[in-house]
Predict the 3D structure of the following.
Amino acid sequence: MPSKGILIVLSGPSGSGKGTVLKKMLEKSIDMKLSISATTRSPRVGEKHGEDYYFISKAEFIQLISKNEVLEHTEYCENYYGTPTKQVNEWLEKGKDVVLEIEVNGGTQIKKKSPSAISIFILPPSLKVLRERLIARKTESIDIIEKRLQIALKEIQEAYNYDYVVVNDSLDECVEKICSIISLEKNKLKEKFNIIREVLENV
């Protein structure tokens, strides 16, 4: 039986509730870690290095890319964002499951580099509900919300490429479904290794 943890990609459009779902998941499991991204942008008020992000220079980030030490990365508003490989691998080797809350482009990169990663896409019950959730936040103008909905449409099309799709209608049910998926995948992995071990030992 392998002692390594599993890598989990969690994606979904803005307003799908993936942040809240992730928080509940982390509360339920002591063997699960949230990957911390690196960025070249400056820290915002209240943000801490090593907790919210790893805040590094562009030169440092480019070096990470050149050494293939990021699982995925993107450039947005003249700043780099990405997932450093080192911390993720350390947690996996210690048997911790690692969750990456990332957008679809990053998810695609992860699956290419780590095909064994489990990808889960969180959907809202409908676009109408998604719009209502974004409006209820009261943090953005209607114009910005409409732009987010257009982006959401494109992101949802990418859900076909994910291993699992879960609708976040009820928070508790959504969390339970995702935890069940992770448990199922771990059991499948355990069974596979047990079968291989039995064959190798049956000399």
